Amino acid sequence: MAARSGKTYLAGLRDNRNIWMDGSRVSDVVDHPALKGAAQTLAAVYDLQLENSEICLGDNPQTKKKISRSHMIPRSREDLFKRHACLEKIAELTVGLMGRTPDYLNVTFAGFVGDKSAWASNGNEAGAERLSLYQQQLMEHDWCLTHAIVSPGSDKSQGDAPRADDAITLHKVENTEHGILVRGSKALATLAPFADEIAVYPRTPMPEGSEKYMLAFSIPLATPGLKFLCRDSMSTPRQDFDHPFSGRFDEQDAFVIFDNVEIPHERVFIDGNINLVRNDRDLMIPSFAVMSGTSDSEARASILAMNESYSLSIAPTIKSLLVLTAPKIKESPKEVIKEVVEDQEVTNIDLNDDLQDPKSIIEQNTKTLEMVVESKIAEDLLQETKNIDNSESQEFNLTDLLFVAFVSILSGVLIALIYIQLKSRQSKKIDYDFEEAKDNSSSIQGLPKGLSIENNKDEQQLDLAVTYFEMGDLENSKSILDEIIRSSDNDKLKQDAQNLLDKFTK
Questions:
Q1: From 1.20.58, 3.30.420, 1.25.40, 3.20.20, which CATH number describes the 457-505 domain?
Q2: CA atoms lying within 13 Å on the CB side of residue 368
Q3: 177, 206, 306, 372: least buried by Cβ within 10 Å?
Q4: How far apart are the C-alpha atoms of 150 and 255, rounded to whole Å?
Q5: What's the whole-model pTM score?
Q6: Does 43 score more than 90 pLDDT?
Q7: Nearest alpha-carbon partner for 303 in 359, 365, 368
């Protein structure tokens, strides 16, 4: 199997997935009034890639079968252009209103596998290999993916990272014979009702002690224990005509509940390895009390030490003509940097310490951009340019002034001639015939044959009579209808007028 059709895609949605909307479980995503519009649109996306195979399909490097170019890992400038053409076709089909069409996560996972070194670091080589194999399956089956990477916020005052006792956020419960058991919830799975599989991976680094929350995996939507709670739908059965966008492009979002879901080993890409995202570097953020007790001189010394360490680490490998330089400090701070610890004694800030005028503060804290000349040849060229500029500025004499004057006079004459010419053209009066031309079927370009925009008095009178009738003003309505029946040359209008008169007796 490779690139699939819309029909095959829709058939795959009937897998007894646990989708809930408006308090009721959805029995069939394809036929549900609020979901079928988007389902049909996504089916059209799959058909599009087959109908435009020369643009949207390429060869699988392993199987040589035709796959969507959104799965491909670009290795050249040409590959990027080919993929762009495919994604552009899909965006045009949905008028750019569906941001989570299948190509979205196809490109994401192709990026993951394009450089596996990030996933294979810090002892996660096995997870990286499983991720690569999964991306091959994704290409071969042409699955539609959704993802849930946001942890539900139960207490925002504690930050985004889950606490050790957080039972709401998705977490690992235990190891099983065939994989791991997970429990909790995730948000916000866009396209969930219409996806074949759901992917979960970390969105932000996590602190030490959060190992059970550091998970990455992908499983089918119909996996036992998975439940999806959809938001209110923007689509209704009668919106296809009056609201064509919401009727066809409502991607849907869902809150995902994992109720003791078992993830097979081969689908687990990260299992508790917090150092994979942190890169094994601990970041200690000092408390407010510690920061407020740090003097100005201590802060300056700390920044200088950090800059010095950074410059030493990159100096052997980086050579740049443009460098950012900090303000020069004549004397190094004499105070020793205090160790930042939680139990450090808090000292008050002396607002009068090193008090300076605003100009001095700006000069000391403003970074400057300097051009560093690292080549003797470049230095000589710059000096030669300066010498030429100086010599030329001294040679500006009377001849140069006369030349400038001549050019100025010539320019003034030309501008005057152009102005006179334009003025003479504007003075010529053009008489127009303002008599309105009568419309006919052939005089207006673009109108169908026999159609005119000329007003029809009898039709207007009939419309007025209908309006009076609907308002309950039967006297005026009858008067107008009698006049149409008496004087109109249009038999159809007469009949319409008589039909309306017949309603008076009813």
A1: 1.20.58
A2: 9
A3: 177
A4: 10
A5: 0.57
A6: yes
A7: 365
Beta strands of 3-102 (E only): which ranges? 19-21, 24-25, 57-59, 66-68
Class of CATH domain 6-155+165-278: mainly beta
C-alpha distances (whole Å) from 266 to each of 271, 330, 350 are 12, 61, 60
Average pLDDT value over all residues in the chain: 79
Q: Tell me: the pLDDT tens digits for 348-405?
A: 444 444 445 555 655 565 554 444 444 555 566 556 656 655 555 555 566 777 777 7
Q: Which two tokens stand for residue 444?
A: 């207006």
Do residues 166 and 211 touch, judged by C-beta distance below 8 A? no
Q: Which residues have a Cβ under 8 Å from the Cβ of 221 and sit 6 or more positions away? A: 15, 17, 146, 192, 195, 196, 197, 198, 228
The number of helix segments (H) and strand segments (E) in the chain equals: 17, 14
Report residue 328's pLDDT band, with 50, 70 and 90 as the boundaries: very low
What pairing do the DSSP bridges indicate for beta strands 268-271 and 215-220? antiparallel
Q: Are 265 and 219 in contact (CB under 8 A)?
A: no
Q: For residue range 430-442, what is the model confidence (pLDDT) as tens digits?
A: 454 444 444 444 4
Domain 6-155+165-278 and domain 457-505 have a common topology: no
- Whose structure tokens read 């951009």? 369
Annotate 25-44 with three-state secondary structure: ECCCCCCCCCCHHHHHHHHH
Q: What are the strands, taking DSSP E only, across 343-471?
A: 368-371
Tokens in use for 346?
């808090």
DSSP type of residue 437: P
Q: Where exactly are the structural domains of the chain?
A: 6-155+165-278, 288-377, 457-505
Structure token digits, residue 151: 């942890």
Average pLDDT of span 287-313:
69
Grouping H, G, I as helix, E, B as strand and the rest as coil, residue 400 is: helix
Binning the chain into helix, strand and coil, the percentages to the nearest 5 are: 45, 15, 40
Burial of 49 (0-12, 13-18, 19+ CB in 10 A): buried
**58, 232 Cβ separation under 8 angstroms:** no
Tokens describing residue 155: 């207490």
Residue 64 gets the label, from left (phi > 0), alpha (psi -120 to 50) or beta, of left
Q: With beta carbons less than 8 A apart as the criterion, state whether 197 and 9 touch.
A: no
SS3 string, 454-496, reads CCCHHHHHHHHHHHHHHHCCHHHHHHHHHHHHHHCCCHHHHHH
Across the range 208-214, mean pLDDT stands at 90
